[in-house]
Specification:
mainly alpha
Length: 86
């Protein structure tokens, strides 16, 4: 009789853990989607801003650092930053 109670409690606990894992997976998926939407929107707005307000080519800034090249922003996927297995 006691083994049935323990088995029932274990089954209930397993079902609760499964429901919690599914809920967390949905939240993680929504967070991931929000991240990529925000990144896309940021890039789109930055490109619009650069078209509206190009950097000025005043003589004072050109004389200060003539060899300066504007930095290019590149995307580095998180999988590339993963530590390599030895």
């Amino acid at each position: 009789m006691a083994s049935w109670v323990v088995a029932g409690l274990a089954l209930l606990l397993a079902m609760m853990a499964l429901a919690s894992a599914r809920r967390l997976a949905r939240r993680l998926d929504a967070l991931n989607q929000s991240y990529w939407e925000l990144r896309y929107e940021y890039t789109r707005l930055r490109s619009r801003l650069s078209r509206l307000d190009p950097e000025d080519d005043s003589p004072s800034s050109a004389q200060a650092d003539p060899e300066r090249v504007p930095p290019s922003v590149t995307f580095v996927p998180l999988s590339a930053m993963r530590k390599k297995d030895k």
